[in-house]
TrEMBL record:
<protein>
    <recommendedName>
        <fullName>Stc1 domain-containing protein</fullName>
    </recommendedName>
</protein>
<feature type="region of interest" description="Disordered">
    <location>
        <begin position="176"/>
        <end position="196"/>
    </location>
</feature>
<dbReference type="Pfam" id="PF12898">
    <property type="entry name" value="Stc1"/>
</dbReference>
<feature type="compositionally biased region" description="Basic residues">
    <location>
        <begin position="180"/>
        <end position="196"/>
    </location>
</feature>
<dbReference type="InterPro" id="IPR024630">
    <property type="entry name" value="Stc1"/>
</dbReference>
<feature type="domain" description="Stc1">
    <location>
        <begin position="26"/>
        <end position="120"/>
    </location>
</feature>
Length: 196
């Protein structure tokens, strides 16, 4: 287990990680043995596609974004008053702000869709929080299903509930979604039974 997770009692979507760790490393902060849930889905997909090992954890990405926003705010304050006469309206907060409060890609979207940097940061934080809450709810439901199956005594229900819970916890560690395999042909459906 990574000492970072032990010292900070890290949990991922409600799963206490005091006895296991992943196999990923952040290229910025150099933390090792991180689980896949420490990285965004886009970062995981790029890593799987390229396999070059340059991953940035969510903490480092958020810190870099905050630093970039702070630098943009400082640049706006340092700009001369004549340079701030150009303004644009944010589609989210409806405020008329200096153009420097927007990124170039946002300004290209036009007045109906452009959002200022604080609104984008708030939307990203809300999305991350809702995603985490959804994962926690899914895990809670899976644990309740396991408890219900244990009480019922049905072996098939126990197996199904525990497999679902294991798949969800495994996805947090590896970042890989479980594959659902079809039922297949099964026994007794081969050539031997034809014509009988």
């Amino acid at each position: 287990m990574a000492s970072y997770a032990q010292q900070n009692k890290v949990t991922h979507a409600g799963v206490a990680v005091n006895n296991w760790a992943g196999d990923f490393e952040c290229s910025v902060c150099r933390r090792k043995r991180l689980t896949a849930s420490e990285f965004s889905k886009k970062m995981q997909e790029r890593y799987k596609k390229d396999g070059n090992g340059t991953l940035k954890c969510k903490i480092c990405v958020d810190k870099a974004a905050a630093d970039e926003r702070a630098a943009a705010a400082a640049k706006t304050k340092a700009a001369a008053p004549s340079a701030t006469t150009d303004t644009a309206t944010c589609a989210a907060c409806k405020e008329n702000l200096p153009v420097s409060a927007f990124t170039k890609p946002q300004l290209k979207k036009g007045p109906a869709k452009q959002r200022c940097q604080p609104c984008i940061a708030k939307a990203e934080a809300d999305e991350q929080a809702s995603g985490k809450a959804k994962k926690e709810e899914t895990l809670k439901a899976a644990r309740e299903a396991v408890a219900k199956a244990e009480k019922s005594g049905d072996a098939a229900a126990k197996l199904r509930a525990n497999a679902t819970l294991s798949a969800l916890e495994g996805e947090l560690v590896t970042g890989l979604r479980p594959l659902k395999i079809g039922r297949g042909r099964g026994r007794g459906r081969g050539r031997g039974r034809r014509g009988k």
